[in-house]
Amino acid sequence: MPGVQGRVTLVTGAGRGIGRATAELLTSRGARVMAVARSKNELKTLGLDYVAADLGTPDGCAFAVKQTRERLGPVSILVCNHGIGSAHERVIWEQPPEVWQETLRINLDGPYYLSQMVVKDMIEQGYGRCVFTSSTAGEKAEYAGSAYTSAKHGLLGLMRAISRDAGPHGVTSNAVLPGWVRTSMAEKSAGAEAEKRGITLDEVWKERAALYPPGRVATPEEVAHVIAFLSSEESSGVSGEAITVALGGLV
């Protein structure tokens, strides 16, 4: 089966968590992966081609795409996974404007810039896959998370717009919506919640696990496998879809 064999793939947020698991999985399946994140130290340990860049700016996105084209070739697969969480957010009437601006810049503006740049490559090839990591917060608002919730909702709109614009040219565009996954980003929110409520970190994760029928949270690898399918040639019949990866839970 062709899958992703030989396809030039740009994976963002690849230094850790879901992005790292995805970069490793796609590489194991024959994709030519460029791993992108802000932390050069994390990327170095992957053993893959990498670019350290700020993907919340047009220049940072352009640099990552330029490096990928020059070193690997035109992009066929974009896995847009980078982002910041909501642990530092407050209820909307107390939310600092700079928190809103930073969250939207990284979580929504960056994916827009990257998509605008790489979809051109895909159209020229007559083939492409765009996969975005949203969140269950992309469909259901979380408490004290107006910026994160808005950005993740917006990401679904961007994904669907691309599916309409680029669909006639052999390009699909989809999103995954993970629930709680024990990544470093989620650890920050768990730590903030534990401190606020005066409970332990393990107690927070026990409560989160109880939200899902299996009594646990999803792993980065489980999300990565769904991303890998949506990145593959076999997913050609799926576009404009938001797929929840939350073990049957509601959040």
From TrEMBL:
SMART domains in alphabetical order: PKS_KR (SM00822)
Keyword Hydrolase attached: no
GO BP term (any one): monocarboxylic acid metabolic process
Enzyme Commission no: 1.1.1.100
A Pfam match: adh_short_C2
GO molecular function: 3-oxoacyl-[acyl-carrier-protein] reductase (NADPH) activity
Superkingdom of origin: Bacteria
Domain Ketoreductase: 7-169
Gene3D superfamilies for the chain: NAD(P)-binding Rossmann-like Domain (3.40.50.720)
Alphabetical UniProt keywords: Oxidoreductase
Entry's family note: Belongs to the short-chain dehydrogenases/reductases (SDR) family.
Protein name: 3-oxoacyl-[acyl-carrier-protein] reductase FabG
Organism: Desulfotignum phosphitoxidans DSM 13687
